Amino acid sequence: MTNSADTVAVSTLASRAASVIRDGFEVYESEFNRISRRARSRFEQRDWKGAHQDALARLDLRARILARVVEWVRQLLGNSVSDRDLWSMMKVEFSALIAQRTDWQSGETFFNSVTRRIFATVGVDPGIEFVASNYAGSPRAAGQRVYRTYKSQASSAALVEAILRDFSFSTPWCHLASDVKLAGELIDRHLATSGGDAPIDAVDMAWPVFYRGKGAYLVGRMWRGGAITPFILALLNPPEGIELDAVLLEPGDASNVFSFTRSYFHVETKQPLGMIEFLKSILPQKRISEIYTVLGRHKHGKTELYRELLQYLDDSRECFGPARGDKGLVMVVFTLPSLDVVFKVIRDEFAPPKNTTQAEVKKKYALVFRQDRAGRLVDAQEFEHLAFDRSRFAPELLEELLSTCAQNVSANAGQVHIRHLYAERRVVPLNLFVREMSEGAARAAIIDYGQCLRDLAATNTFPGDLLLKNFGVTRAGRIIFYDYDELCLLTDCNFRDMPQARSDEEEISGEPWFYVGEHDIFPEEFLPFLGLSELLKDAFLGAHAELLKPAFWQRAQEVHRAGEIVHIFPYRPEKRLRYRP
Ligand SMILES: Nc1ncnc2c1ncn2[C@@H]1O[C@H](COP(=O)(O)OP(=O)(O)O)[C@@H](O)[C@H]1O
Ligand SMILES: [Mg+2]
Predict the structure, then answer these.
(1) Residue 25 Cα to chain centre, angstroms
(2) pLDDT tens digits for range 425-463
(3) pLDDT tens, 172-203?
(4) Inter-residue contact 493 to 464 (CB < 8 Å)
(5) What is the sign, positive or negative, of the torsion defined by CA atoms of 262, 266, 268, 272?
(6) Which helix (H) or strand (E) holds 322?
(7) Is 483 a catalytic site residue?
(8) Torsions phi, psi for 378 (to 5 deg)
(9) Which of helix, strand or coil describes residue 424?
(10) DSSP 269
(11) Whose CA is nearest to atom 21 of ligand 1?
């Protein structure tokens, strides 16, 4: 009697708690969508500051709502809050509550976030968390049509015009006729140089517009001779009106636009699964986790990354081993041979000259999360309480983790437990790249390294440690930065000229004989500090000599202090329709 009454009480409690989590999830989703939807009017009204604030608000949204939901659940469950059986029932109830939603995947991740905040589970507990990937071939993805199809027209220009006219904005086009003409010519040139004279069969354009920074992107794919290639129209809205700025047709263009080094898009995704499938068709090399992340669904991206990792470990016998390159003073970095991800664990102690703390390092990663990543900063996912088989670690790596990261890593006979790590895309460290690649490739890399510093300066970021080993080269050959512990806002730095020595003793003194403040930076010292070969030094000077003068950095600071928002183009200047060399 008592038993069955108890059972009823427990199941009611489970269903009420599941509803509380579902309600929280609904609030999160609707807020997320409301902010994402607002990107359109921000773009139309050229409200770049508003767009920037929205980007931050959306990044902060999840943690804010989760904190509230966890509090409600704790209150509701009282002493039963860590009762696993109750949570198993809640999981079943929750699953039923979200089953009919198109965003149920994101719902599962939301539930997991609540569970993990309450349990601090080591590894994953399938009884109370959603683990298995429901993505692959999901029947629920079928029928989520997120695009419309344009049949081939009399000319490429006519096709572009038909598309542009369908995406109407409240702001008028600035010079639609000439946009259409230039785009048509560009597409024809592209067709002639790739795949001979096969005509375009059709173009599918995603319904929702993708917004980021000052740009709007109409994202599509072109069908030609049975093959799919990207078809992306990049729009800007200068004071004169909306214009088509670039037509991006190469696979490399698409991966640049959707790069893991850029801030997340604002895009209305009522059918997330359908949208993911659509994007995957034009970004075949990109892992699903990264596609979720570029849509702003970084927490679900994290769930997917974890699934990819488990799948990979299941399918292969490869082991974690140290990442190539110079060892870090702050991080122990390891990787798997055929998965392009590195894992970074913070050391217990840092050798001089580093005098930071674990908490400070984490703050820097959190700063980057909210910063415009400008196509130059790797997106890092933070994981807690991971567990792996001990046999999957190369012995010398495990030895290093246990001896120098004891606060974050422990092991028993069977398992390794990692309390905290960052996971991010693996790239080729730039110091290795310039050593191992041809002269021409190394020169190009050093020139893009300078451009990387400029792009970061344009978005108010100073990397702090400029050594080549802290930069990497992506598949597309772009230079990006990954070592965040000394990164800071440009406006917090003090760029100075080197004072003139007043005497010979001062001149030859190894130590600075003048006062150096904590935030003082001497651009004149950059080049000697980098230790480049003569050839690479010349390449750098040819393109970026002004970076060695404080004036360059001070001007960039003024731009930020005036509150100006600089747009970083996710394509090269030559790709712009009206490019003049
Ligand atoms: N994303 C990455 N891809 C490839 N190698 C990396 C990556 N991040 C770090 N590494 C390697 O690990 C080393 C240490 O990482 P880093 O982030 O620079 O930490 P630290 O602050 O300890 O120097 C780097 O010098 C590089 O060789
Ligand atoms: Mg480093």
Answers:
(1) 23
(2) 999 999 999 999 999 999 999 999 999 999 999 999 999
(3) 999 999 999 999 999 999 999 987 778 999 99
(4) no
(5) positive
(6) strand 321-322
(7) no
(8) -70, 140
(9) strand
(10) -
(11) 330
Residue 397, phi then psi, degrees to nearest 5: -70, -45
What is the C-alpha separation between 486 and 102, in angstroms, rounded?
Answer: 42
For residues 432 and 386, the answer to whether their CB atoms sit within 8 Å is: no
Element (H, E) at 261: none
Helix (H) / strand (E) element for 471: namely strand 471-473
Q: Name the closest-CA residue to atom 27, ligand 1.
A: 325
The answer to whether the peptide bond before residue 353 is cis (omega within 30 degrees of 0) is: yes
CA angle, 271 as apex, 268 and 277 as ends, to 5°? 105
Q: How many helices (H) and strands (E) does the chain have?
A: 18, 19
Residue-level length of the chain: 581
Quick one: tokens of 525?
């010292």
At 1, is the pLDDT very low, low, confident or very high (cuts 50, 70, 90)? very low
Residue ranges lining ligand 1, Cβ < 6 Å: 323, 325-326, 328-331, 333, 342, 378, 424, 426-427, 429, 469-470, 472, 482-483, 485
Q: Helix (H, G, I), strand (E, B), or coil: what is residue 342?
A: strand
CA distances from 437 to 334, 337, 361 (A): 23, 20, 32
456, 479 Cβ separation under 8 angstroms: no
Q: What is the 3-state secondary structure (H, E, C) of 199-244?
A: CCCEEEEECCCEEECCEEEEEEEEEECCEEEEEEEEEECCCCCEEE
